[in-house]
Amino acid sequence: MGRLFGRIRPADAVTMIFLSLFALLTLTHYDSTASAGRLLLTYVSLLSIQVLFIKYPPERGVLKLAHDIAFPVTAVFLVFDTMTQLVPGVNPRDIDYLLIRADYWLLGGYPTVWLERIVNPLLTEVLQLAYTSYYFLPVVLGVVLKTKKRDREFDESLTYILLCFYLSYVGYVLFPALGPRYTMNHLQSVPLEGAFLFEKIYGILNSIEGIKRDAFPSGHTAVTLVVLHLAFRHEKRLFCIYLPVTALLLLATVYCRYHYVVDVLGGVALYLVTMAAGRVLMGSSRKAG
Questions:
Q1: Cα–Cα dist 117/190, whole Å
Q2: Quick one: pLDDT at residue 288?
Q3: Is residue 179 packed enough to be buried (19+ CB in 10 Å), middle (13-18) or exposed (0-12)?
Q4: Measuring CA to CA, which residue among 207, 268, 262, 270 is closest to residue 95?
Q5: Nearest-CA neighbor of 266 among 187, 174, 183, 181?
């Protein structure tokens, strides 16, 4: 068994573990989950592809690129899409009211409402772009490491990033919440308006993400902090670029009304959990190898 797991990349193990978990949740909540058959087919299909990659690991060429980048990225986004049905099927009780109370208890008010005093079309534009950078920061880091043929650093980074994504999905199942853009819109008196591309980007993100219970913990916060940490560890120049982007992104999560402040704090906690769990996983892999 030790030799078997020694041959499996930690990143592949992460994918298999969480695909299996979500498939099991779908089976145990089949009757209460909309489109449960489609979800199960998605998980099983991805699992089958992952098993094939493990059994027949490609050495080079297009298949190697698919194994290293295309498949993990595709799996993460396909699984995220299934959260629309899986989360309410498994846990139909939203906790937005608790998060709103927590924000009020911590800050003495509603952060998204308080931030209306600094709303400005140009600032909104910049922060929306920073928020959207979340989708590109991990990919750019991976491409840089791959281009430099730093395979060990690439595999390590891929493991941490995948682990953070999938743990955030587990968080959505455990703590379903829509976020302030849906629950607190009636309290907002100043609309968010951009200068150039805000409305288009906002619409694209809404069409991609749909109405999901994906507010707590903030995956944008957790994944971005993990990527920033890895950039500091492996690519200092990239870290210098990522640092101001990350600061703007964290502000954007609340300013753009995607998240409560406690979501961001939950994202910070998830980042810490990811780094600790990732170290254990990478250490176990080295021992098994």
A1: 9
A2: 55
A3: buried
A4: 262
A5: 174
Structure-token pair, residue 81? 């899409």
Spell 228-244 as b/e; 16+ CB within 10 A means b: bbbbeebbeebbeebee
pLDDT digit string, tens, across residues 21-64:
999 999 999 999 999 999 999 999 999 999 999 998 888 889 98
Rg value, the chain, Cα: 19
* pLDDT tens profile 217-242: 999 999 999 999 999 999 999 999 99
Report the C-alpha gap between 257 and 261 in whole angstroms: 10
Q: Rounded mean pLDDT of 179-205? A: 84
Number of domains in the chain: 1
Q: Which residues span the domain enclosing 106?
A: 2-288
